[in-house]
Amino acid sequence: MPRHSYKKRVFKKDKQFNSLEIAKLINYIMINGKKSVAEGLIYKMIDDLKKQSDDPLKLLHLAIENVSPIHEVKPRRLGGASYLVPTEVRRERKLKLALNWIIDAARARTNKEFHTFDQKLVAEIVEASKNQGAAVAKKAQTEKLADANKAFSHLKW
Predict the structure, then answer these.
(1) Does domain 20-155 have CATH number 3.90.660.20?
(2) Distance, CA of 93 to chain centre
(3) Taking the chain, what is the end-to-end CA distance rounded to the nearest angstrom?
(4) Distances (CA, A) of 37 to 41, 42, 86, 89, 105
(5) Which SS3 state, helix, strand or coil, does residue 100 take?
(6) Which of 32, 61, 113, 114 could lock onto 119 through a cystine, CB 3.0 to 4.6 A?
(7) Per-domain residue ranges for the chain?
(8) Is 90 helix (H, G, I), strand (E, B) or coil?
(9) pLDDT at 152 exceeding the cut of 90
(10) pLDDT in tens, 102-121
(11) Please, where are the H alpha helices in 53-131?
């Protein structure tokens, strides 16, 4: 538990689409503070999504919704033993987990089928919107672990 309350950070929406999800996606992809490179990747990815769907933002929201978990487990120490206690995931954390799982799944793709990162990201978002792919499998694994530890749900703090 934090010793003092903290001020919640307010994120600016992205310039082109005025979307918080795209702004966070840009920030999560950014490496070494090179935001313009990350913006270029994301906007190119959205252009590629426009070729597959008439509304790329709706496709991205559907993918995020399909990947975001409802429950996750947190370790709780009690009497020398650690228990994995299932907890509900807050809305902000759902978005963070979903975006990070999509990015990780895109990075894990091989270079044989896709040569650039934005192509890998497009493929992962399209698969996630169809409820398939590695990011959706990660969500299922997390949900399954939370369901298996349902017996310890009374240990919430």
Answers:
(1) no
(2) 9
(3) 10
(4) 6, 9, 38, 31, 20
(5) helix
(6) 114
(7) 20-155
(8) coil
(9) no
(10) 999 999 988 887 788 889 99
(11) 56-67, 91-108, 117-129
